Amino acid sequence: MGIKMPGKLILQPPSIIVKMRSIKYFLSCYMFRYVEYPVGASVASYIKKCWVLDNSNNPNPLTDKQVLPNGCFNIAFISGEGIAITGAKVNAILGKGGYLCGQLTSSINIHLYGNTKIFLVQFYPWSPLLFMKDPLYETADSFIPIALTSHSLNLNFDIADEKQIMNYFNSGAFIGNETVIKPAMNVCQLIRRSKGNIAISELADQTGWSNRYLETVIKSALGLSPKEYAGIIRIRSLIDRWQIASGIRFSNLALEEGFYDQAHFIKTFKTMLNVSPGKFRKENYILTNSGISY
Question: Of 52, 104, 155, 252, which cross-links 35 as Cys (Cβ 3.0–4.6 Å)?
Answer without folding.
Answer: 52
